[in-house]
Design brief:
The protein is mainly alpha-helical. It has helices spanning 20-41, 47-62, 70-84, 96-132.
Length: 147
C-alpha cells in the first residue's frame, strides 16, 4: 500500500543571512562594476546618479546581510563613490557635509534592506505558525476553562 506523506510539513527555518565577508566582497565588486558602468554610460561628473545606484545596491545587499555588515557595506560603497564617481578619479577626498550625507544615505539603505528582510522572514514564520495552529497563534500555557 502506498502512503502519501506531505514533504512540506513541519517548521521551516528562517533563511540565514550571508556571511559578512561575502557581503563585503559583493559590495566591493558590485560597486566597482556599477561605478565603472555609470562612468562609461553617463560620465564621471554625476555623483547624485551614482549615489542613487549605489544606495540601491546597498539595499539589495542588505536583504541578505547581518545588521553588523551594514557599516562596512556603506563604507565600501562610499569608497567607490568618492574615489571613482567624482572627478578627479582615483583620489579620495573628504568634503564634510557632502560625504557625511553620502555615508548616511548608504548606511540607511543597507539598514533598510536588512530590516525589510527580517520583517519579511518574521511575517512568513508567523504565518506558518498560525496556519499550523488552525488560524490563530495559541499560547502553550493556555488551558480551556474547566480543566
Amino acid at each position: 500500500m502506498i502512503e502519501w506523506v506531505s514533504v512540506g510539513t513541519g517548521a521551516r527555518p528562517v533563511p540565514r543571512p550571508a556571511a559578512t565577508p561575502l557581503v563585503w566582497a559583493a559590495a566591493s565588486g558590485g560597486a566597482l562594476l556599477l561605478v565603472a558602468l555609470l562612468n562609461v554610460l553617463v560620465g564621471p561628473g554625476r555623483p547624485s546618479l551614482a549615489l542613487t545606484a549605489l544606495s540601491l545596491l546597498a539595499a539589495l545587499l542588505g536583504l541578505r546581510a547581518h545588521f553588523a555588515a551594514a557599516p562596512g557595506t556603506a563604507v565600501l560603497c562610499w569608497l567607490f563613490l568618492n574615489g571613482f564617481a567624482i572627478p578627479p578619479a582615483g583620489t579620495l577626498t573628504w568634503a564634510g557635509h557632502r560625504d557625511t550625507f553620502w555615508l548616511f544615505c548608504l548606511l540607511a539603505a543597507t539598514l533598510l534592506g536588512t530590516t525589510l528582510a527580517r520583517l519579511r522572514h518574521a511575517r512568513a514564520a508567523y504565518r506558518r505558525v498560525t496556519t499550523a495552529d488552525g488560524g490563530t497563534a495559541q499560547d502553550p500555557d493556555h488551558r480551556p476553562p474547566g480543566r
